[in-house]
């Protein structure tokens, strides 16, 4: 699914009106109907009074139409209007249609409406058309709303928040919503940590927007979902066997961190690799062979860390990093790997930290290498980002410069491609914020890179999608607080089954 800019969202509305031969008022009615249906399902027995705050534009028109529908459905609803010299045509249309029985008042600085603990407030002040910070009465209304113990539902976008750019005045007034209900593709703002306190739980409703316009829209932003066919796992052929699905090498582990090697190997095995060999410190042999008997094991001459690179001839992909440590000898192994590898590489954890500490090694990255940093590791590879939007700029610049795929881990993990496209992930939950979760992802990416049927971007996106889906399956059994990285490994098989076509 593509993620559109605010300008493209406006163009999409116009294209829908033209392509489907409807009026803009009819499209607004669709949005209001979808919003009302969501409201009925979310607040089915609501007896508290509902306040709809309406601005002068089409976002306010959505609010007026919603108020009419809620009144018709038996909800106790009232409307407060933000005074303005001019209102949009569709706002005026829906103002005329509002039943006289719905109380309407004008907002005023000295008489803002009281908002008690049980109140439900619909924020329909400003939508995606906003381009400047809120000021004056609008800012006072937002401050009043944020200070109240009310439950807030934002229509399309919390007022004061920009859809696809950082706030022009950081710290300025922005509605803090419990829910944001949007229409069509999700907004980029929904996917970034800095906006979480404003967006709350977001929902996207389908109102039949013009798919042809969406297909033709030029955007670097995408949202990967479970049903997306372009990231599915191909079904295995009847006569496939272990060599068909690749032989992977995993370099992992150091003293006190053998668990990372065990988790990464387990995920690689569950991810469908045909054969797996792990190269681990000499002192980790018993641990590894006892816990992962399905894998072969090579041991390093050093007992506590890796100092040697085995012959790469037998392997279709190599992963390095989980629990690796950052000894000088290990850095030398990483450099040798970058200089000599002719097969796909997956780089994570301490291997990324070594790259960050020795940035001259970045020039050696083979094309289409997959790197899997969290935000801290990515910062060491690049620079400290001013905000989440700047970090996305850094991600795109990095992947294009080094012709690599970067899996920037987070709540909506962003997979950056060598052509500058970015794919946000839809699966996963906060329970996955636990030690070892990243090692599991590394093993899964490695398995899919060893599968010669998949390219680097396909493998990375599929691994991230399956990893998050495994987390969701696990959380359904254990709860988020009780989820461990080992649970993720156990649920990779069912997750990939659900993603196989």
From TrEMBL:
What is this protein identified as?
A: Bifunctional NAD(P)H-hydrate repair enzyme
Q: Where does K(+) bind?
A: 59, 123, 159
Keywords on record = ATP-binding, Isomerase, Lyase, Metal-binding, Multifunctional enzyme, NAD, NADP, Nucleotide-binding, Potassium
Q: Give the EC number(s) listed in the UniProt record.
A: 4.2.1.136, 5.1.99.6
Q: Catalyzes what?
A: (6R)-NADPHX = (6S)-NADPHX; (6S)-NADHX + ADP = AMP + phosphate + NADH + H(+); (6S)-NADPHX + ADP = AMP + phosphate + NADPH + H(+); (6R)-NADHX = (6S)-NADHX
What function is annotated for this protein?
Catalyzes the dehydration of the S-form of NAD(P)HX at the expense of ADP, which is converted to AMP. Together with NAD(P)HX epimerase, which catalyzes the epimerization of the S- and R-forms, the enzyme allows the repair of both epimers of NAD(P)HX, a damaged form of NAD(P)H that is a result of enzymatic or heat-dependent hydration.
Q: Which organism is it from?
A: Hymenobacter caeli
- Which superkingdom? Bacteria
Underlying gene: nnrD
Q: How does it assemble?
A: Homotetramer.
